[in-house]
Amino acid sequence: MIYMDNAATTRMRPEVLEEMMPYLRDCYSNPSAIYGFAGEAKAAIDKARSRAAEILGVDSDTIYFTSGGTESDNWALESAAFSDSEKKHIIVSAIEHHAILSTALSLERRGIRFTYIYPGKDGIVDPEKIRNAIRPDTALVSVMTANNEIGTIEPVAEIGAIAHEKGVLFHTDAVQAFGQIPINPEKMNIDLLSASSHKIYGPKGSGLMYIRKGLKFHAFIHGGHQERDRRAGTENVAAIVGFGKAISMAESDMDERIKKETAIRDHMIERLLGEIPDSRLNGSRIKRLPNNINVSFNGVEGESLIILLDMKGVMASSGSACTAGSIDPSHVLIACGNSYEEAREGLRLTISKDTTLEEADRTVDMVADAVRQLREMSPMYS
Predict the structure, then answer these.
(1) What is the torsional sign of CA 254, 259, 263, 300?
(2) pLDDT (tens digit per residue) in 82-134
(3) DSSP string, 4-70
(4) Which member of 343, 346, 356, 362 lies 3.0 to 4.6 Å from 329 by CB, making a disulfide possible if both were Cys?
(5) In what order do the strands lie in the sheet containing 207-211?
């Protein structure tokens, strides 16, 4: 098996699991209790919080643990929508993850107004479009740091600066970018940031929200006093500990991973586009996550290609794992100006820190063979 779907989830590092195990077996106390045994669990959570703060260059009291990126995205939009009765307008990009777009649809049914900003053909959102869309009643701008399907890195610092200039909060879904590329909320004008553990070789079911210090922001989940009264519910200690370890390791080897993954990414893109006729790259060639390759082949449906690659031992995807099984074309490719048919042709290959050049070449060979097979069977391609 060659695993090329690391944007969907990554394999947990052995060191992460090792650090989690004591909190699954021995240190099982509720960190909210007042006896000494509980203090061990609380200290472990505090250590993970410090690790998250360190990679972002912020204070630890701005980090709140959640169940993952989806919860954090929901929290950002829901709280901003109802924090000010005079501000009932939110701006998001049209290529956001469904954790944002589905929340937007829910909020629209409750009277919140949304403006959707479409990117250019390369998937990059023009900051000036954000400026022109801001109104006196705008509560929040939300644009992802990097797109989960096509890997495009967005100009979040410029967008955040425009939002602040207009007195508007800025949130970014950094789930695909956190731990993959450097991010500093204070330098990048970010008020709210979502991240997730299982994208950086940590456990599933753990994420975080960065909330800028001094920002009055409502709780999303109500109950106990956990997470300083902003996120109720007994903490998933082991998962948080694992997330913290994954963060620490991501920070320590980030430069090395970026260099290695970028080299393999570029090698694969050059081979795919150079050796397979009628192929095209989706997303920016330059402003792109180090591990993301998203290509389309004329006359080849992405889902059919994925099934054939699976039979050959290559795990890939056509877009977000959260839309697997959907017959709809990629909303990201549609928003970038592709036709319905073109938006069904995307193939996403996302490599990891462990991907070898040999695996990359074998994958390209199998993609080329699968594309040839499907085109030979297609009456639509000649």
Answers:
(1) positive
(2) 999 999 999 999 999 999 999 999 999 999 999 999 999 999 999 999 999 99
(3) -BTTT--PPPHHHHHHHHHHHHT----TTS-SHHHHHHHHHHHHHHHHHHHHHTS-GGGEEEES-HH
(4) 343
(5) 63-66, 207-211, 192-196, 169-173, 138-142, 89-93, 113-117
Q: Nearest CA to 381 among 368, 371, 370, 367?
A: 371
Q: Which of 47, 49, 29, 67 lies closest to 228, judged by CA?
A: 49
Torsion angle (degrees, nearest 10) of CA 12, 14, 19, 21: 90
- For residue 38 the two structure tokens come to 């509980």
Round to whole Å and give the CA distance between 212 and 68: 19
For Cα atoms 269, 270, 271, give the angle at the middle one, nearest 5 degrees: 90
Q: Are strands 89-93 and 192-196 parallel, antiparallel or unpaired?
A: unpaired
β-strand partners of 347: 295
Pairing of strands 113-117, 314-315: unpaired
Rounded distance between C-alpha atoms, residue 123 and residue 332, angstroms: 8
∠ Cα 161 147 150 (to 5°)? 135
The H or E element that residue 274 is part of is helix 254-275
Return the structure tokens found at 185: 């909320």
User: Do 345 and 302 form a contact (C-beta atoms < 8 A)?
Assistant: yes
pLDDT digits 0-9 by tens, 202-232:
999 999 999 999 998 889 899 999 999 999 9
Q: Which two tokens stand for residue 275?
A: 């050796």
Hey, which residues are catalytic here? Answer: 322
What tokens were used for 108?
Answer: 């629209």
Q: DSSP string covering 112-148, please?
A: -EEEEE---TTSPPPHHHHHHH--TTEEEEE--SB-T
Please report, for residues 43, 195, 366, the alpha-carbon distance to residue 230 in angstroms, rounded to integers and kept in the order given.
Answer: 19, 17, 49
Question: What count of other Cβ atoms lies within 10 Å of the Cβ of residue 323?
Answer: 16
In whole angstroms, how far apart are CA 266 and each of 224, 258, 273? 49, 12, 11
